Amino acid sequence: FGFHVIKGAKVVVPVTFRASHILIRWKGTERCPPSITRTKEEALKLAEDLLKQLNDGGDFAKIAGANSDCPSKAKGGDLGVFGPGKMVPPFEKALTGLEVGKLSGIVETEFGYHVIKRTK
Predict the structure, then answer these.
(1) What's the confidence (pLDDT) of residue 34?
(2) How many helices and strands in the chain, by DSSP H and E?
């Protein structure tokens, strides 16, 4: 068959995530609509209550749809697929440490409190 010259190439697999979240805002968070009037303490209490419901077996999509302050609530909190650098650092840090199918604790960003579920 003759001689063959083969060059190995390093294959780089891009890192991507898929996640859903529930966002609970309080008055004064980044890009917060005027309709949100809860305090930071009220937001934390609500986020804690929702996380408890989820840890007790609650349906993430239903809880997100009924409670999240993010437009993604229309899709059960699904944020779709995204790569590194697309989310604010505290969100990405929490997501990076999560196994697929697991929930974060409560993550605070400039947008509010998040409960994140990694789905990919």
Answers:
(1) 96
(2) 3, 4
DSSP letter at 46?
A: H
Mean pLDDT of the 11-15 span: 64
Which secondary-structure segment (H or E) carries 65?
helix 60-67
119, 20 contact by CB (below 8 A): yes
Cα gap 117→35, rounded to integer Å:
26
**Residue at 7: amino acid letter:** K
Condensed to tens digits (0 to 9), the pLDDT of residues 77-111 reads 999 999 999 999 999 999 998 999 999 999 999 99
Contact, 101 vs 116, CB < 8 A? no
Residue 4: how many other CB atoms lie within 10 Å: 5
Q: Which helix (H) or strand (E) holds 91?
A: helix 89-96
CA nearest to 82, candidates 16, 13, 12, 14: 16
Half-sphere exposure of 14 (CA within 13 A, CB side): 7
